[in-house]
From TrEMBL:
This is Stimulator of interferon genes protein homolog. GO terms for molecular function: 2',3'-cyclic GMP-AMP binding; cyclic-di-GMP binding. Keywords: Membrane, Transmembrane, Transmembrane helix. PANTHER family: STIMULATOR OF INTERFERON GENES PROTEIN. It is a multi-pass membrane protein. Residues 37-149 form the STING transmembrane domain. Its main location: membrane. InterPro entries: STING, STING_C, STING_C_sf, STING_LBD, STING_TM. The keyword Magnesium does not apply. Residues 151-336 form the STING ligand-binding domain.
Length: 345
């Protein structure tokens, strides 16, 4: 009898010990998680405080050294707005950690755990020292790819579109590209293979004044169009090339030119006064962004969306041989003959 009671008591004591151990582990786990959250909130608060002070310092430097870049009447407001503008991700993170901090205060009953102490604040200079650690050439690449319109590539594409294509191509007084191409076809009894202005954008960014191709021959250009631009009547003309290789027994013509801003960029990279290592390192990013932004402008604007055929391509094949532009034109021809796709596969 007594033995059975002793066994029962031992079993109960063992069970209680197990429960106590589980409770102790659970307590320490909750405490560890709570401390981790409090430490994280303190670190984030320290980082944002360091960032706030750094932005304030930059505001002062901007006001003292670069005040001429701002209008006097809104200089301070503009500098503060520019300096203390946060991206969406940073804003959500800040709000999220504020909510977590308030939640911890409501649970613990005090704010000591989530308020940075001197131990944390003493590390603020480290943030200032290493704040640019995340910057790299790859960062520049991502910045170029973004849709802000302030990079070199987007600027070239925008100027090319607004200063040239949007002026010379649409119909104004029966002098648009399609009208001039139709007159050219009727006058010379020929057919255009692509009923648009073909613009070449090779990756080496260089296009000769006369296209080098065994399949193409330069002929008489389209009728010149004169447009008043800033008080000066400027001539706008488009070159025409004949495809020497017949397709289904027929000869085709093309209104074609290279992307002149890309040629200017190529020249700038060869000139010591204008070339920078960033331009040379990121030239492919600039090339691709130029094409992407120009295509977006052309297809978005109703008057030009059907007037330009952009051809972006590698200047050399896998063996290093120069790509023949005539072959590219054949591949991009509109389906004016039923067998054209089969011939260019």
């Amino acid at each position: 009898m007594f033995g059975e009671m002793a066994i029962a008591n031992s079993a109960e004591e063992a069970e209680n010990a197990v429960r106590a151990e589980k409770s102790r582990k659970c307590f320490y786990l909750k405490k560890m998680i709570g401390e981790y959250i409090d430490t994280s909130v303190c670190i984030v608060a320290t980082v944002f405080l360091a960032d706030f002070l750094q932005r304030l310092y930059r505001c002062v430097v901007e006001y003292v050294r670069y005040s001429r870049y701002y209008l006097p009447e809104d200089r301070v407001r503009t500098i503060l707005r520019r300096s203390y503008t946060y991206n969406t991700k940073s804003t959500f993170l800040l709000v999220g950690f504020l909510l977590v901090g308030f939640a911890r205060i409501s649970v613990t009953g005090n704010c000591r755990g989530v308020v940075p102490t001197m131990v944390f604040l003493a590390h603020i200079p480290l943030y200032w020292i290493f704040s640019d650690l995340g910057q790299s050439t790859l960062s520049y690449s991502h910045w170029i790819r973004e849709s802000h319109g302030l990079d070199y590539a987007a600027g070239m594409a925008s100027n090319y579109f607004h200063g040239y294509l949007k002026l010379s191509l649409p119909e104004r007084k029966e002098d648009g590209l399609h009208h001039r191409m139709e007159l050219y076809e009727d006058k010379n009894n020929i057919t255009f293979g692509i009923n648009r202005l073909v613009i070449l954008i090779p990756d080496e960014m260089f296009v000769n004044g006369v296209l080098e191709s065994d399949l193409l021959k330069k002929v008489e250009p389209l009728e010149t169009k004169f447009i008043n631009r800033a008080g000066v009547y400027r001539p706008f003309k488009h070159a025409v090339y004949r495809l020497n290789q017949k397709v289904n027994g027929k000869t085709y013509y093309f209104a074609i030119e290279g992307a002149t801003p890309m040629l200017s960029f190529f020249d700038a990279m060869q000139f010591n006064l204008s070339a920078t290592w960033q331009m040379k390192e990121l030239k492919r990013e600039i090339w691709l962004k130029f094409y992407k932004h120009l295509k977006e402008l052309i297809t978005t604007w109703p008057e030009t969306r059907n007037l330009v055929e952009l051809i972006i391509y590698s200047s050399h094949d896998s063996k290093g041989n120069l790509i023949d532009v005539g072959e590219l034109l054949k591949a991009h021809m509109q389906n004016k003959t039923r067998t054209i796709d089969e011939l260019t596969d």
